[in-house]
Amino acid sequence: MMQSEEAVLRFLEGDDEAFDLLVRQWESKVYNLAWRFLGNREDAQDVAQETFLSVFRSIRTLREPRSFSTWLYRIVLNHCRARWRSQSPEISLDDPVPGKEGSEREPSLALVAGRREQDTLEIIDLIRKALSGLSEEHRSAIILKEYVGLSLEEVAAVMGCPLSTAKSRLYHGLRGVQRNLGRMGVKAS
Predict the structure, then answer these.
(1) Measured at the alpha carbon of residue 125, what is the angle toward residues 124 and 130, in degrees to the nearest 5?
(2) Partner of 150 for a Cys bridge, out of 5, 32, 154, 168, CB 3.0 to 4.6 A?
(3) Between 3.40.50.12780, 1.10.1740.10, 3.40.225.10, 2.40.40.20, what CATH number should domain 1-89 receive?
(4) 167 sits in which H/E element
(5) What is the pTM of this model?
């Protein structure tokens, strides 16, 4: 399969099919990031569509095709933040985690270790709810690191901040999740 960098270059040279390939390569990752941030399937679908429309309109401004993923994640986060600010999202415990053939990760928190599957699903839902109570920066850092699986350097690049700031946001975000879980009666180990 063609790499993103090559697809970007081909699209810029006039190959419209290359953009379709980019969408197919990235649609589940874009959707999953939006869903994790917003906690609502319909909003995540809207953000995914808005993201690819933005990418289509502005891809010619991308200076370095190798940085496509960082640029794309930044666009997704910007759309998520705009939607988050425009409404008061609520995470439903009835809304299950969407499965897309392993395209998303569950958080690597010690809470889920050694638990039965039903208990694990309930804890994951509580973690999702705890995340919704964080600031945009803290929630973004956690989602990019723990769910998307980016390195801290990549998190910093996507968020447009120094590495030390990304580390701080992740640390304080995880502390916030622990605090929120404690308020819900869950003890983090």
Answers:
(1) 95
(2) 154
(3) 1.10.1740.10
(4) helix 163-183
(5) 0.74
